[in-house]
Amino acid sequence: MKVVALANQKGGVGKTTTTINLGAYLANEGQRVLIIDIDPQGNAGSGLGLNIAEAKNTIYHWLIGTDDTSPAQPTNQPNLKIIPANIDLSGFEIDVRDNANRDFVLKDRLKTLANDFDFVLIDCPPSLGILTINALTAANSVLIPLQCEYFALEGLTQLLRIINLVRTKLNTALEIEGVLLTMFDARTRLASQVVQDVREHFKKQVYDVIIPRNVKLSEAPSFGQPISVYDPQSTGAIAYKTLAKDLLSRQKVAV
Ligand code: ADP
Ligand code: MG
């Protein structure tokens, strides 16, 4: 089971969109995929058509509970399950404050699912707090979505510092899965400049595929569908499908 955290403490950079659509295409490729939402906003669940508002079988209940029954819920996609979040999760930080193992709660819980999935994608909240630390501690690798905007690289030093801190103290094996450029608008020179800067900075760690700005990607969640269902011919769909294949082929090389 490979665990990938999708992290960037900036909001609105495409973490959730990437989690849902990468997850859907990995599932289409026959991988058994679990999406774990650890953002109290709960967008991954609602984007896949779940009604999360009153749910009592969320990530929060699993993390703080002791019941070992799998909390993974089916979605409308074969091979794709999810542990959704909702606002209840915002209590987690306070609940575990005095717990010496507070950084390992998710990692310990995930052990019970080790035989059930090939990929776990963790959709992180827009912060570097205890939830993101739990994700980075539980993960084999971190995928960093970067929006092709002027401030793309801002805050990245902080994220990389946290990743290094987790590596030294909590999870020595944590790798960078890749840096993904998102919301690329080919009409602006700025976006192309950002792509160039990010490639210069991160070299081979940047995926060749760039996710274009595509309105279909922003519409799909309101229909509770991944882009592979909502509009498989769209530019956004083709890009996420390419990303899934790229990610899979890199695993084969690594094995
Ligand atoms: P995050 O999870 O990092 O906060 P989201 O994935 O929720 O970011 O994306 C923020 C907003 O931008 C959402 O409304 C989403 O639908 C939209 N969006 C994400 N990626 C794209 C894209 N490539 N093209 C157009 N809209 C996008
Ligand atoms: Mg999100």
Automatic annotation (TrEMBL):
<dbReference type="InterPro" id="IPR027417">
    <property type="entry name" value="P-loop_NTPase"/>
</dbReference>
<protein>
    <submittedName>
        <fullName>Cobyrinic acid ac-diamide synthase</fullName>
    </submittedName>
</protein>
<feature type="domain" description="AAA">
    <location>
        <begin position="1"/>
        <end position="176"/>
    </location>
</feature>
<dbReference type="Pfam" id="PF13614">
    <property type="entry name" value="AAA_31"/>
</dbReference>
<dbReference type="InterPro" id="IPR050678">
    <property type="entry name" value="DNA_Partitioning_ATPase"/>
</dbReference>
<dbReference type="InterPro" id="IPR025669">
    <property type="entry name" value="AAA_dom"/>
</dbReference>
